[in-house]
Amino acid sequence: MWVLGIDTSCDDTGVGLVRDGQVVVNLVASQVRLHGAYGGVVPELASREHLKAIRPLTERALAEAGITAKDLDLVAATRGPGLIGALLVGYTFAKGLAWALGRPFYAIHHLEGHIAAAWPEGIAPPFLALVASGGHTHLYEVLGLGRYRLLGATRDDAAGEAFDKVARLLGLGFPGGPEIERLAQEAEEAVPFPVPLREQEGYDFSFSGLKTKALQLVEKGLPKPALAKGFQEAAILHLAEVVLRAARDTGHKVLLVAGGVAANQALQARFREAGLQVYFPPKGLSQDNGAMIALAAYRRFRQGFPPSSLSLGATAYWPLEEA
Ligand code: KG4
Ligand code: ZN
Fold first, then answer.
1. Looking at the chain, which terminus has fewer C-beta neighbours within 10 angstroms, N or C?
2. Does an H or E element contain 78, and which?
3. 164 in ligand 1 pocket by Cβ < 6 Å?
4. What is the DSSP letter of 201?
5. Could you tell me the distance, in angstroms and rounded to a whole number, from the CA of residue 260 to the centre of ligand 1?
6. Is 174 near ligand 1, meaning CB less than 6 Å away?
7. How far apart are CA 213 and CA 194, in angstroms?
8. Taking the chain (323 residues) in consecutive chunks of 10 residues, what is each chunk's mean pLDDT?
9. Prior bond to 196 cis, omega within 30?
């Protein structure tokens, strides 16, 4: 069974092909250079770029898989949350394709896609899932596919957003996460950063204090590698402390860590030594992509979820609990 998955929620056009639950092709057309000049994603430019990329990228994905559109069994796309203009491009394209081919269409929640990318076959809920990306830092209790309970979320910046902003303070490129990770490896010592929200009783996250601290230290002229290392360590420790406390309190032994930040090797090492059964997305599947959307759709199909209505619109705001 072939599933096409499309994600155009933000600044990357993602087209993925999954065969019987295995990722065969996963193409991402990045818009990093386009938005780089503005220091952030310009929504209207993102939509226009998706429009240019979506058809050729889909044709390339089909060619690389050695199939044609007629071989597709399911078509899926991100319905939300995200930038509405950007979402509409991939979502409408996918719905049109499903309609033309007469195939079922699945409207997928972006975070369900991220979770699906980290969710190995044979691992049954309930478990915990942390989604840490440029737009989200959300901790969920996954009770089943399509059944999510939010335990905590960031009060300010998302984890990836904090990496991006601190990278900018350090004069590094975008996206900041990989740049900070690389620079931190050059440091022997880390400049200490205070770990946020140590006194809270809930499971929230906060990264704006780390960002402010980074700014103060940059102004003091401290060495950048040690600063990058200190920030990274504190951000990771903060994520780990909150998640591990939630695991202790809820009794869950299985944890999925998903989203762009899950690619961080120092983060993976820290969570691996936590005594939980922890899973990360395979390489190339933590950042936004289309294959994760196809994986989520394939799971939904297998579990007997009905296909989505083609009259359903995309949505910028959509809590995962309502997906
Ligand atoms: O999931 P994603 O591709 O897009 C969103 O849905 O937001 O996540 C992108 C974010 C960016 O903020 C980027 O800096 C961060 O993930 N990121 C990382 C790493 N690779 C990407 N953060 C820390 N370490 C990394 N290695
Ligand atoms: Zn994402």
1. N
2. strand 74-80
3. yes
4. S
5. 3
6. no
7. 8
8. 98 98 98 85 96 98 98 98 98 98 98 98 97 97 98 98 96 94 97 97 97 97 97 98 98 98 98 97 97 98 98 97 96
9. no
